[in-house]
Write a structure and sequence with these properties.
147 residues; alpha+beta; 5-stranded mixed sheet; 30% helix; 22% strand
């Protein structure tokens, strides 16, 4: 999970693990979206948005990546850092990328969120204008490895 908040007009990472991704284990019978939402509410208050942005195999399991957007001023005691841009992890036409860094997963998640902020009515309604403006610079890139 990447916990996001807006501070001084700039998105930043800030959650229970500070600016690091928050790894949680989910039992096979549990709904990951429900678990992420519940843990977010319990530790930081009601999130503005919880959305899964990608999946991959890592750590001996399937890892689902989520962005959790918190409201302005929510959980201000949590350490945070401004988000920096990163190059996307690149895969082959039929293979996954050999390595994927957390910053690349976050970059993908923000581009996904930016697309939803323009196309999905639920996300459009949930995000503030400040968030939509900050996400405007994140744009999808074409798949580069077509055979």
């Amino acid at each position: 999970m990447f916990v996001l908040r807006m501070r001084s007009g700039r998105p930043e990472l800030a959650g229970p693990c500070g600016p690091d991704p928050w790894y949680i284990e989910v039992a096979a019978e549990d709904d990951p979206v429900e678990v992420v939402g519940r843990l977010s509410r319990n530790l930081m208050g009601e999130p503005v948005l919880v959305h899964s942005t990608s999946w991959r195999r890592a750590r001996g399991a399937v890892v689902l990546s989520f962005v959790v957007v918190n409201a302005d001023g929510q959980a201000p005691q949590l350490a945070g850092v401004p988000i920096s841009r990163a190059e996307l992890a690149r895969s082959g036409a039929t293979t996954a990328a050999s390595t994927i860094a957390a910053a690349q997963v976050l970059e993908h998640g923000l581009r996904h969120l930016a697309w939803l902020a323009r196309e999905d009515q639920v996300v459009i309604g949930a995000l503030s204008e400040e968030w939509k403006q900050a996400l405007a610079e994140y744009v999808p890139e074409p798949f580069r490895n077509i055979l």
